[in-house]
């Protein structure tokens, strides 16, 4: 495990992506994939943990968020905080990658300004990382959520 | 004379006859008048005589009285008697004067004159006596004087008697005159009566001969005429009224004969007409009888029908009241006309509390927190607008305040084409709602729980395959690919199962948005290009270049088109071809549709199994042998969705030649439907 402090130090130099995922194996594979793609990855398994990073990190370039998390809060609570009007991170691209299919939740995410909602099992890591790359390098082509479902 | 009489009119004859009788009666009247006058005169004379007699008798009596008074005076010297004598004397002389004036007869006058002289002597003597007595009658002169009076009286009485006698004789004579007048009058009257009778009988005879007989004859004639005998001889009479009458009869006879002839003709004609009319009437009557019979039969039928209907009605009522669902019938203003028992049980209201009330006011649809939903979402309102049966779920508030989840179906009640009211059927789905809720939770949990390990397998396999964990050998790559593909099928299967479970709950939502269906199908096609390429299958799209914008739920339509396309690819052999078409048929206003066709040149569906193709978990024999990947759920989902959004789906297929699937959606688009979940 890399210590928090070390993570933050590293993050100050590179392109930072915050990954929020409760399932450890998935968190690992995501992190590995992103690191292999050249990103600095900050991982968290609970909202509390994530909000802690959000407060302390100087910059975050994108967020990868799963709905169900450890603890009592889910990612909706987190996104609500992050996407607060005029907040520090309001303009950071957020991709929600979850297996949850509840429509009202999907709608809630999209209405809060999340860029895209992925059903985890139906997308490859390549696809999602590709989209993320677009959002960071070429914001013009970052998916923009359309709440048409 | 008779002949002459015949020429005189009957009227004149009658006037003459009655005139004669009248003159005779007048004459008799005159005679009677004069006779009565005579009798009156005679009577007056008789009366006078009677008076004379009475006066004479009075005189006679007074003389006698006067004498006796004098006598007594002389004897008594009482002046009472002298006064009496004087009074009596005065009366005698007055009566005498009366008598004298009455008696006109010479003979009697002579006697009366004598009589008067005597009387005046007598009163002179009386006065002398009175004087003498008053003077004391010293010389007895009074007695002497009385003797003289007595002498005079002896002469007077006979004279008076004589007068009486004469008058008696005269009276008798007068009475005889009267008798004569009476008897002669009677005779005269008898004569007249006889004459009148003779005259009358004469007139009667004459009338009989001149009037009655002809009248009788004419009566006979008239009688015969009345029986239609027009050829009788009408007797001719003189030129009086009867003659005229007989002539008139003749004229009348001729006229009658004519009119009778024409009448006979007329009657014959009329009779004929009447007979015909009667025949027609009979005919009509027959027809009416037939109609009546038919009506009776009809009535009987109607009665039976009525009984049947009443039975049906009773059955309907029984059904309504035993229905587990709440049922409310409203009029076009949505006022409650009828509620059944279940409706009351569910809502807590009694029928009399709701009947006549506005249903949406009593049962205000709300969301699960009791917040009223927008009125345009009220089913009872929408149903009248859309004019079709609609179904939804929302919440009612029980009379006691509890919020009840209900499944509501509303439809328009029509008689012929005319809407007359609405029917709302609802049931308490509290249990279902709970089940539904937990099922939703289960589905969402299952989807998460099943997919999470699948995702793990997915991504790690992906990492291995991409060489992120070091180079892998060719056999390793091959095996990993199998794992990867198998895992994908697993993901698909989980998705399909989740969709089926939602479809079977019947609650999946339809959220249409305006989009171009042609472009939409193109997009789905490009998503499967990779798949097609793998089997070297040619995909051709004949879209509508202008585009067909309509209301579509993209998610649902994607599932439909994706399924059809992936089936077409899956069940086509290497190097086959698939044609996809999107065409508009008809205009939106006239119920036009969009037809999507997916035609492959694949294995086809065996004819014997074509009817099962949309059944859940069914897979045709021919493809089961070649391919184990299919879930048997795809076409079931396709059909469920297409039905749910108001479209139709069907296919044509020949084994080993290919299959064409057709999906038609109304141009008016998909209708929005509320549900608890969407499909994936």
TrEMBL record, chain A:
Tagged with keyword Phosphoprotein: yes
Matches recorded under CDD domains: REC
SUPFAM superfamilies membership: CheY-like
Modified residues (4-aspartylphosphate): 66
Residue ranges of domain Response regulatory in the record: 16-135
GO biological process: phosphorelay signal transduction system
Pfam families, per database record: Response_reg
Keywords attached to this entry: Phosphoprotein
Domain of life (superkingdom): Bacteria
Keyword Iron-sulfur on entry: no
Name the record gives this protein: Response regulatory domain-containing protein
Biological source species: Candidatus Magasanikbacteria bacterium CG10_big_fil_rev_8_21_14_0_10_47_10
Taxonomic placement: Bacteria, Candidatus Magasanikiibacteriota
TrEMBL record, chain B:
Domain Histidine kinase: 445-669
Stored InterPro entries: BphY/WalK/GraS-like, HAMP_dom, HATPase_C_sf, HATPase_dom, His_kinase_dom, HisK_dim/P_dom, HisK_dim/P_sf, PAS
Keywords assigned by UniProt, alphabetized: ATP-binding, Coiled coil, Kinase, Membrane, Nucleotide-binding, Phosphoprotein, Transferase, Transmembrane, Transmembrane helix, Two-component regulatory system
PROSITE patterns, per database record: HAMP, HIS_KIN, PAS
GO-annotated biological processes: osmosensory signaling via phosphorelay pathway
Superkingdom in the source lineage: Bacteria
Entry coiled-coil feature ranges: 271-319
Keyword Signal found: no
GO cellular component terms, A-Z: membrane
Membrane topology: Multi-pass membrane protein
Domain HAMP, chain residue ranges per copy: 209-261
Record bears the keyword Coiled coil: yes
EC annotation from Swiss-Prot or TrEMBL: 2.7.13.3
GO molecular function, one term: phosphorelay sensor kinase activity
Residues of the PAS domain: 312-357
Segments crossing the lipid bilayer: 12-34, 188-207
Major location (coarse): membrane
Compartments, as annotated in UniProt: Membrane
Catalytic activity: ATP + protein L-histidine = ADP + protein N-phospho-L-histidine
Name listed for the protein in its UniProt record: histidine kinase
Species: Candidatus Magasanikbacteria bacterium CG10_big_fil_rev_8_21_14_0_10_47_10
